[in-house]
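Could you join me in thinking about how sequence relates to backbone shape in a protein? Label the sequence line and the structure token line clearly, so we can match residues to local backbone shapes. Once you have written the record down, we can walk along the chain together.
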Amino acid sequence: AEKVSAERAQRAVELERQRQAEAWERQKREAEVTARIHAEIARRQAELAKEQAKADEEEKARRLVQAKEEAEAKSKQEAQEKLEAEEHAAQQAETEPKEKEDKRGRREVDEKSRRERSEERSRPKAEEK
């Protein structure tokens, strides 16, 4: 009976060792799968970070080019406005003396015609008397 009991105890110990070995192997496989999954996640994150850095750099370059183009356009517009203002000032400088002369000439003509009308009005009165 002791021999049977010892054999059973021996088998029970062997079964427990086998069960523990299988559990340990299962845990080992699960840890390996988990490690591969984490490695793949880390690889994808690194890839995404690299793509994002590239996209950020491209956006920065695009904004720089856009700012440069806007500055050039603004500079050209300011230069054009300055040129137009200078042309207008030059044109004004040319036309103002002429306009003053024209006004003076018109005033002289207006005064002359007023004098003539005044003289015409005073003539008939002189003739009537």
Observations:
- The mean pLDDT is 88.
